[in-house]
Amino acid sequence: MKFNNFLKICLILCLTTLFIQCKKSNNNYEEEQEESYSDENGYSDGTYCAEIDYYYSETGTSSTYTLLVEIENNELTVIHWPNGGWLDDSHFTPPDISSGEASFSSDRGVDYTVKIIGNEGDCSTSSYVTDEDDLIQQKEDDENEEYRKKQLEEEEEKEAEEEKRRQEEEESKE
To answer: Compositional bias (Basic and acidic residues) spans (predicted)?
Structure first.
């Protein structure tokens, strides 16, 4: 009889333990499902590591960098440059990045493609980047250099014409 009571107690303990473990597993499953559901709906607000491709048609300059970006409401709102600067949504319309990738053009005509590659701290970011100010300055410097070359060519043409005119005058005097 004592043996039967012992078996009943063991059976009750086993069933209770099994019930508790199943309950814990179910809670973990629900939490995983919530995380998955969040991932399916895009990205939580925060800072992420991203691969940034840019192209500036005015100079033909293009590059790819790994930088930190900020996402709010599944929209890309800020790109952080390694020099402490940033490009924020005051210079572009925040694109939807819930798929993990977005493309947009800034107010200065630079085209960007941004691909999320991990969470903040999951990657090593580029240490030097040519930011928009550098791109615009490069364009202005190139335009100034082109202007100087054109002025020099025009001056040389004028001098050549002047020299030719003088030679013609001297020849006509003789």
So the answer is: 161-174
Is the four-CA dihedral 101, 119, 88, 111 of positive or negative sign?
negative
Q: Where are the beta strands (DSSP E) in 74-160?
A: 75-80, 86-88, 101-105, 110-119
The secondary element (H helix, E strand) that includes residue 146 is helix 132-173
Greatest alpha-carbon pair distance for the chain in Å reads: 148
pTM for the structure as a whole: 0.56
DSSP label at residue 98: T
21 contacts 91 by C-beta, under 8 angstroms:
no
In three-state secondary structure terms, 105 is: strand
